[in-house]
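Morning. Coffee machine broken again, so started the prediction first thing and wrote up yesterday's gels while waiting. Chain of 199 residues, entered below exactly as on the submission form.
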Amino acid sequence: MSALWGVAYARVGSERRACAELQRCGMTCYCPWMENRKKTGALFPGYLFFLVESDWKRIFTKDLLFAVRGVLMRDTELLLLEQRVIDEIRAREDSDGVVHFGPIGAGTKIRVKEGQMFGMLGVIDCYRSENRVRVLLDVLGRVTPVELPDSVVELEVAEIKLSRSKRKKLLSKQRRKAKRARDLERSVRRDRSLGQRSS
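Came back before lunch.
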């Protein structure tokens, strides 16, 4: 079975200390780094990954952890990431351990980081040009394709990749909903037109 990783959170700027605390407790920890304005900082400020082992709960209840503030949960369960997520990030590291990203790949879960759609979650569908990307956004429970500059999207911490077939299903579902709405609108217009003629 592939290894699973959890996500711990700490005060922004204390990621190294938090990672060191977990390592002193015998845990395998990974905090990716990136350069921002010629300074090196955490790729996900305030977050770090730890290898999930059988005694992880006991370690996180210890009084030895000061920089580590807790772990990310999904409902009542620990939020888990597959080993491939960690491997994909590590594959982008240079010889100094700094992560470098090119264009975000199709199927990657992202968050809009600026503009009118700030904070919205979506999935990369495809690149439309060198620096514009089509994103499938979750708008009020509906999957809506939107074109955005690639500079306004960023990786979501819990990165999830959707296959091409799943992206097609999401689009097909949205198109069926849109077609039903158009058909209903045409039907209403037709009924109104017939009512006006009969009067």
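The radius of gyration is 22 Å. Going to sketch it on the whiteboard this afternoon.
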